[in-house]
């Protein structure tokens, strides 16, 4: 096409310079006014040279028509290229959706549901039925657009001119038509494959949903049965205080913690039930640490030493013995006046003393740990000082209890929860493998007494 235009321009130019010297040794250059067609004759002053040659007029008109034809074909080609790019984009998204679908099959049930909920086509709905309908509509729309392109290609102007000066119609280039057909065929294949995969995924999802529903119902039934068993079982806590804390290993990570802290106190009584056969020494049943003093109150039996009571890091040795593997009731009283203390085991006072941190008030805002001795407040435990055994009914008062009250607690004839720290389930948390279990201490104590009586009869 460009060759024809250049030839025609050359022919017209040749005719306009026939007035030049035949030898070609002299050329006259004339300025062409803006907007004027090249090849048209102009005088030295810029005025157009009039000619009445019909051949030149015909050639001029032909050049104008050819230029318009070229512009129209360029616009058509640009439009077709845009269509091809759009088809390529659709095909790429279909291929990406197919890859994501194949990856989703290799994942578990949760992953498959997550991928199924993704919008893999960019404009597809989440429901499989809507997705299939949308894919069908997209394919039909693409087919219609291709048909429109084919019909438009039949009307594209060609480079041949008819005898009457009207441009002849030529079909779309076969290479472009074949490329469009291949692209549409590949896209249709991808869409059909995606529809088949969605149908299969829909079926699998339905089966998995039914299986999951059945498993969920079975698990709920089992849970309900377990709840009924626990409600009927005697192992559940009948009362908030009927439980024990078990610390079965001598480590630095098994312990219990009392959620409630202490106020400032000028006297206290602490009582508990202990059961241990650890050797040497049962360890630390409890410790109370405050900022600046980790040993504010500590009860410890470490190594071959006797049981010791520490108040403000001052030490008093207690005449107690609880390492025979039986339950024993222990009570310790202390008052800041003269630092006077008393030690009770199973309701009987076994020892007393004074000058244990006299006139020192117990500091508030600390942490009570069961089973470990604190080197800093609430932590840095030493495994060699850990308590090994079971502990229950840890209660604390901000006064000195009477001997009759302590005897009532020891023989289970009285129930007096601590007014500062009561022993209730919600007030005790365990860590590191320590456990809480149901226990009615008085029933277990009676069994221990009967067992001890039988042992004494055998020895007698």
Characterise this structure:
Residues 241-442 form the Pentraxin (PTX) domain. This is Neuronal pentraxin-2. Keywords: Calcium, Coiled coil, Disulfide bond, Glycoprotein, Metal-binding, Signal. This protein is of the alpha+beta class and 460 residues long. Among the domains are: 177-235; 243-441, Jelly Rolls. It has seven helices and 16 strands. The strands form three sheets. The protein has a seven-stranded antiparallel sheet with strand order 12-11-10-5-14-3-16. Strands 9-8-7-6-13-4-15 form a seven-stranded antiparallel sheet, with no helix packed on it. The protein has a two-stranded antiparallel ribbon with strand order 1-2. Helix 2 runs parallel beside helix 5 (174-232). It starts with a helix and ends with a helix.
């Amino acid at each position: 096409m460009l060759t024809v235009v250049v030839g025609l321009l050359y022919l017209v130019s040749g005719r306009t310079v026939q007035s030049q010297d035949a030898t070609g040794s002299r050329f006259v250059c004339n300025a062409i006014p803006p907007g004027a067609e090249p090849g048209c004759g102009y005088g030295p002053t810029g005025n157009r040279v009039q000619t009445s040659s019909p051949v030149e007029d015909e050639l001029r008109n032909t050049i104008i028509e050819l230029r318009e034809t070229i512009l129209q074909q360029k616009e058509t080609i640009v439009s077709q290229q845009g269509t091809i790019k759009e088809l390529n984009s659709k095909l790429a998204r279909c291929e990406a959706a197919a890859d994501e679908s194949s990856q989703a099959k290799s994942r578990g049930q949760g992953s498959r549901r997550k991928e199924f909920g993704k919008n893999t086509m960019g404009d597809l709905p989440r429901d499989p039925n809507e997705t299939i309908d949308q894919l069908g509509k997209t394919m039909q729309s693409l087919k219609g657009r291709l048909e429109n392109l084919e019909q438009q290609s039949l009307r594209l102007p060609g480079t041949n001119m008819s005898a009457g000066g009207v441009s002849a119609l030529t079909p779309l280039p076969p290479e472009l038509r074949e490329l469009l057909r291949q692209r549409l065929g590949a896209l249709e294949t991808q869409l059909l494959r995606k529809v088949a995969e969605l149908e299969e995924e829909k079926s699998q999802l339905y089966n998995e949903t039914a299986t999951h529903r059945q498993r969920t119902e079975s698990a709920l039934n089992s849970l309900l049965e377990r709840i009924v068993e626990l409600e009927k079982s005697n192992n559940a806590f009948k009362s908030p205080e009927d439980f024990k804390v078990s610390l079965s290993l001598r480590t630095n990570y098994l312990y219990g913690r009392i959620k409630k802290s202490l106020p400032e106190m000028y006297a206290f009584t602490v009582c508990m039930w202990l059961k241990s056969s650890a050797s040497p020494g049962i360890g630390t049943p409890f410790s109370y640490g405050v900022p600046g003093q980790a040993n504010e109150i500590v009860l410890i039996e470490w190594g071959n030493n006797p049981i010791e009571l520490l108040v403000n890091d001052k030490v008093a040795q207690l005449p107690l013995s609880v390492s025979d593997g039986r339950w024993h009731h222990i009570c310790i009283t202390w008052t800041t006046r003269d630092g006077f203390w008393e030690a009770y085991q199973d309701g009987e006072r076994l020892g007393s003393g004074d000058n244990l941190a006299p006139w020192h008030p117990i500091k508030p805002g600390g942490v009570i740990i069961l089973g470990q001795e604190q080197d800093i407040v609430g932590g840095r435990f030493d495994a060699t000082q850990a308590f090994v055994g079971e502990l229950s009914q840890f209660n604390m008062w901000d006064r000195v209890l009477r001997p009759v009250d302590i005897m009532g607690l020891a023989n289970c004839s009285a129930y007096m929860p601590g007014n500062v720290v009561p022993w209730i389930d919600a007030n005790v948390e365990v860590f590191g493998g320590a456990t809480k279990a149901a226990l009615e201490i008085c029933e277990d104590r009676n069994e221990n007494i009967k067992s001890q009586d039988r042992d004494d009869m055998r020895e007698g």
